[in-house]
Amino acid sequence: MQSVNPEIVLTLSVACAKLGAVATENAFGVVVRTGTDDDWPEILKLDSFAFGGHIADLKTGITRDLAPNENVLVATVGDELVGVTMNYDLQITVPGGALVDVPGVTWVSVSPTHRRKGILRKLLTEQHARFLAAGNPMSILTASEGGIYGRFGYGPITTEYTRTLDRRFVQFRDTTADPGGVRLATKEQAKTALPGIYDRWRRSCPGAVRRPDAFWRGVFADPESNRGGASALFYLLHKDGFATYRVRDEKSRMAVEVEDLFAVTAEAYTAVWRALCALDLMETITVSESRTSLLPYLLTNPRLPKVTGAFDLLWARILDFPRMLSARSYASELDMVFEVTDGFLDQGGIFHLRTDGAGAGGVCEPADGPAQVRITAADLSSIYFGEHRADTLAQAGRIWSESDAALDLFDRAFATADTPQGGMFF
Ligand SMILES: CC(=O)SCCNC(=O)CCNC(=O)[C@H](O)C(C)(C)COP(=O)(O)OP(=O)(O)OC[C@H]1O[C@@H](n2cnc3c(N)ncnc32)[C@H](O)[C@@H]1OP(=O)(O)O
């Protein structure tokens, strides 16, 4: 990745008010620079403290493969490393099927000894300046907390629903096929088959992220530290789909925890679920899927899979609005001038988007006002993948429109038939 400003020296003046004392001025110098081999022991220490777990050698090796030093930025004060951010080189599928190379921001942390002094902001400012200089049209991340990244122009783009069903009461409907074709796979068989099936799946699903080889290395290494006390992975394999799962055995009650379930066809999806539900000694099955899971429709009792949680897996931030808006397809016709506000990167402005709709692509270019709709960079990034709707955001007071009719046209054009799904936590 091309670099700009290899080193920025920032002097932050921070007013520290102490209980019962007069506020004092505490000045310190923060240096933001590209990471080096020598930084890695300190990066590991920092992220271990930040995320509350000691990072194993395996994960370190995989991370270093995914994030070469030129993708790493560190913040130092004196000889102390106090902050880090990095990115993996990933690819995302956008509505309509185009594949866009994107940096995936990850391993972000600032030392608890130096928090809320603007170090994250400085790191992300430099990191995103580099993304822009390298011509990246969008960046993505998985967020540790929902309150951090909106201010940097990121919006959530997928939602994963955790569903648990009591397998003992599963009955498939008469209308549900029983296609078969699933086998119990060894790890070696899974290594050969899973990456190819996943890759076919992710190309057909908006929001899905390419899994690099090093990521798969981590999946198949399946270290004890990833199991949370459950079993090693089991693999159920169909030619067009698969499930990987663990078994948790607590007080003689065995529960299946699905880690991955991806299917390119409805037939493969049904076949994999038939096999999962035939695991007689298992009491429950827990899985994370998108809003439009097929599972309830396969069962006589659609209430059986109970939603026990929801999680915004993937966040995105559009960096180049004309390019990204010209990259996706649209659901209906639109010929509109709109304004994007971008308080973080100053990439906003007035744009004209024209599309013939019903699956057609779009042409987006900078334009002159007046705008019919005004939206933030974060909210436009959210509605881009179709999980969140302009209409909902407008009702929440987050989008301005000159009229209800303009909002309705905008909303309908950005809607997607397929629910986005991320496919990868990183
Ligand atoms: C993609 C990923 O890797 S997600 C992982 C993020 N990392 C973690 O969760 C690890 C634990 N947390 C941390 O290391 C730190 O608290 C960080 C990285 C989240 C924040 O670092 P800091 O240097 O304290 O943040 P900084 O002072 O630059 O704050 C920047 C802005 O974010 C806000 N902010 C910082 N942390 C949070 C938070 N946890 N929740 C909400 N807002 C936050 C600040 O108020 C500030 O807002 P403003 O600039 O608009 O006024």
From TrEMBL:
<dbReference type="GO" id="GO:0030649">
    <property type="term" value="P:aminoglycoside antibiotic catabolic process"/>
</dbReference>
<dbReference type="Pfam" id="PF13530">
    <property type="entry name" value="SCP2_2"/>
</dbReference>
<feature type="domain" description="N-acetyltransferase">
    <location>
        <begin position="30"/>
        <end position="177"/>
    </location>
</feature>
<dbReference type="InterPro" id="IPR000182">
    <property type="entry name" value="GNAT_dom"/>
</dbReference>
<dbReference type="InterPro" id="IPR051554">
    <property type="entry name" value="Acetyltransferase_Eis"/>
</dbReference>
<comment type="similarity">
    <text>Belongs to the acetyltransferase Eis family.</text>
</comment>
<dbReference type="InterPro" id="IPR022902">
    <property type="entry name" value="NAcTrfase_Eis"/>
</dbReference>
<dbReference type="InterPro" id="IPR036527">
    <property type="entry name" value="SCP2_sterol-bd_dom_sf"/>
</dbReference>
<feature type="binding site">
    <location>
        <begin position="108"/>
        <end position="110"/>
    </location>
    <ligand>
        <name>acetyl-CoA</name>
    </ligand>
</feature>
<dbReference type="InterPro" id="IPR025559">
    <property type="entry name" value="Eis_dom"/>
</dbReference>
<feature type="binding site">
    <location>
        <begin position="116"/>
        <end position="121"/>
    </location>
    <ligand>
        <name>acetyl-CoA</name>
    </ligand>
</feature>
<dbReference type="InterPro" id="IPR016181">
    <property type="entry name" value="Acyl_CoA_acyltransferase"/>
</dbReference>
<feature type="binding site">
    <location>
        <begin position="144"/>
        <end position="145"/>
    </location>
    <ligand>
        <name>acetyl-CoA</name>
    </ligand>
</feature>
<protein>
    <submittedName>
        <fullName>UPF0256 protein</fullName>
    </submittedName>
</protein>
<keyword id="KW-1036">Host cytoplasmic vesicle</keyword>
<dbReference type="InterPro" id="IPR041380">
    <property type="entry name" value="Acetyltransf_17"/>
</dbReference>
<comment type="subunit">
    <text>Homohexamer; trimer of dimers.</text>
</comment>
<dbReference type="Pfam" id="PF17668">
    <property type="entry name" value="Acetyltransf_17"/>
</dbReference>
<dbReference type="GO" id="GO:0034069">
    <property type="term" value="F:aminoglycoside N-acetyltransferase activity"/>
</dbReference>
<feature type="active site" description="Proton acceptor; via carboxylate">
    <location>
        <position position="426"/>
    </location>
</feature>
<keyword id="KW-0012">Acyltransferase</keyword>
<feature type="active site" description="Proton donor">
    <location>
        <position position="149"/>
    </location>
</feature>
<keyword id="KW-0808">Transferase</keyword>
<dbReference type="Pfam" id="PF13527">
    <property type="entry name" value="Acetyltransf_9"/>
</dbReference>
